[in-house]
Amino acid sequence: MNQLEAFRMEKDDFFGHDHQSPLTRDQKKEFKGLDYFPENPNLRLEIKVEEFPDKQRIEMRTSTGDTQVYSRHSRFRFSADGRDSELTIYEGPNGFFLPFVDSLAGQETYPAGRYLEPEPLPGGRFLIDFNMAYNPYCAYNANWSCPLTPAENRLKVPIRAGEKIFHKEQ
Questions:
Q1: I need a surface site. Which of 3, 58, 169, 170 has the fewest CB within 10 A?
Q2: Which residues pair with 105 in a beta bridge?
Q3: What's the CA dihedral at 150, 63, 168, 15 to 10 degrees?
Q4: What distance lies between CA 58 and its chain's CA centroid?
């Protein structure tokens, strides 16, 4: 078992059994594990980013109508599914944050997008591992408040890595 498989197994155990799981008691009764894309080594990227000089602050609306404040930290370019794309990395009180929506949204991935926490590396680089992309807690239970993906992070390409859409009737 590799590191990604072990992580996914631990996450499924947490979702199915932990009292802090985003799943309701009824959802846990039927839960058999989350659905994931197969590991895609081509979407584990060490990327050089272009930092924004002004670190503009933005308010992201949430799924419950509130707002959360983030700073636009940097932008990076990458290739997925044979097409060039770019995304913005944000910085908030808990570190770096990368919400994104791909072209599979609503079919294979959560319609409001998935999240990543990019890992800073030396030399203005980041580790962006789309295999670790996950659904926000509001994908499982509407009682959670989750930031909505800004328009600049809506991709026209599929990202076939990470967590797939959650179907309540698991």
A1: 169
A2: 109
A3: 90
A4: 19
Domain with 56 in it: 42-153
Determine the Cα–Cα distance for residues 118 and 123; give it in Å rounded to an integer. 15
In tens, the pLDDT along 11-68 reads 999 999 999 999 999 999 999 999 999 999 999 999 999 999 999 999 999 999 999 9
> 71 and 7 share a domain?
no
The single-letter code of the amino acid at 108 is E
Identify any residues that bridge with 96 across adjacent strands, giving them in sequence order: 91
pLDDT tens digits, one per residue of 107-159: 999 999 999 999 999 999 999 999 999 999 999 999 999 999 999 999 999 99
Pair (21, 46) in one structural domain? no
- In this structure, what token pair is assigned to residue 80? 């997925």
Locate 22 and state its tokens. Answer: 């985003």
Buried b (16+ CB within 10 A) or exposed e, 1-20: eeebeeebeebeeebbeeee
In a domain? residue 11: yes
One domain, residues 29 and 46: no
